[in-house]
Amino acid sequence: MIRGRFDDFPIHHAMYYNTTTELSSSSSSPSSKDAFVEFITMNEKALYTTDQWGVTPLHVLCANPSATTKQLKVLIAANPDALAVQCSGGLSPLMMFASCRNIELTEEGDLPPLWDLLRQGEEKAQEKGQKQGLGLKLDVLEMILEVFDRKRALYLDTYRKEESSRLFPLMLAASLPHCKFEMVYKLAMRCPELLRDHLEQDPLRGKNPRSHGTSGNKSNSNNNSNDNGIASFFKKMIATKMPSKRKLDSVLCMG
To answer: Of 53, 54, 75, nearest to 64 (Cα)?
Structure first.
């Protein structure tokens, strides 16, 4: 950073140094929770300013590794048009966010399908010869899902099977060594009804398969096979990732 670059841009300066972090996220008092919102409200006009390189306050916050989901949501809500602004280097805020967190976007600068996001961590882990600690982080996944999935494409992905692997993103995450339980849990919380419906047939829970119609129906047989596939993936997750079965019950809202 060029010394003094943001001297005349107080909100850029605050987003760069994250000077409002402890006010906005560390305390439980109402005044602390609202501090970041109050700061943005007080500087509302400055949200539309850019520096000499066309960088908006949102660009700066997206490049800040200490940024939180809440801060990004507040800033975008105050100026949603900033998401489409490209700086002089041709980077949108999403591109800036991805570049600073080693996330590969599509050639068009959009988010890749959810399966590809999860696999990026697998590829990085294999390159380093490690199984954990690399790739997509939980807080980054949360930001992507809650802040940048504006077209709800990733939300829809959670309910779809990948054409090549025939896996839901939830199943893929459960099978990847570098995806810890917390990340699988986060994905499960985005489609709990899907998880509950399919795991009702899991013999681990001692439940009988739910009737979906005539027992002789061929499509029902296929559905049962798919359900058992999800159950087997989650049995694997229980054995390799999960600290206790009680946590699974909390995911299913059945315990």
So the answer is: 75
